[in-house]
Amino acid sequence: MKDFLRLALILFLFCGISAGLLAFFNQFTRERIEGQALSEKAEALRTVFPDADSFPETEPGRRWDAMKGQDRIGTVFQVSPMGYSGQITAVCGLDKEGRITGMRVLSHTETAGLGAKITTAAFQDQFKGKTIDQIALKKDDAAKGAIDAIAAATVSSRAVTRAVRAGAAAQGGTK
């Protein structure tokens, strides 16, 4: 019994010290991690709408106006569909003519080597210049669809494509 209490006390101390160290380093790195996430999002906004100089937020964390000088030249919006393994977060640019100016995946939990290919330029660049009626997988709409699905990752491809289409429609994009 005495050995059991001694082992329990050692385990309790070890867990307490480990938890304390984790809390310390979490607090120590939190600002840096948040700053990096904001920097990555700002870079993604510039990537999906390269003609814009600034991106004033119109809906916190979800929508930005793409501005060139004092003129609004489009919108950047965020979509967050559920993929095969979890939530996918992406940003999209939409110009005044209703064409996608770019799309970038910010985060995902898709399967490495399969669904994770939604982050490749080959997949993301397919959206550029497309109108709402073209934003569909070719395998789902052979007549109008202009997006090639990723082999063995149709669920991820479909989730992103449908979310971009719905997001563009919600922003007032035209067919």
Structural overview:
- The protein has 175 residues and is of the alpha+beta class.
- It contains 3 helices and 5 strands; from the N terminus they run H-E-E-E-E-E-H-H.
- It has helices at 2-48, 121-124, 154-170; strands spanning 57-59, 63-68, 71-79, 89-95, 100-107.
- The protein has a 5-stranded antiparallel sheet.
- The chain is elongated, with a radius of gyration of 22 Å.
- The mean pLDDT is 92.
Run of helices and strands:
HEEEEEHH
Number of domains: 1
Radius of gyration: 22 Å
Q: Supply the number of helical segments.
A: 3
Q: How far apart, in Å, are the first and last alpha carbons?
A: 76 Å
Number-wise, the strands total: 5
Q: In percent, how helical is the residue content? A: 25-40%
Question: How much of the residues is beta strand, in percent?
Answer: 15-25%
Uncertain segments are: none
Q: Report on the biggest sheet.
A: 5 strands, antiparallel
The outline comes out as: elongated
Short description:
With 175 residues, this protein is of the alpha+beta class.
Entry keywords:
single chain; 175 residues; alpha+beta; five-stranded antiparallel β-sheet; 3 helices; 5 strands; 39% helix
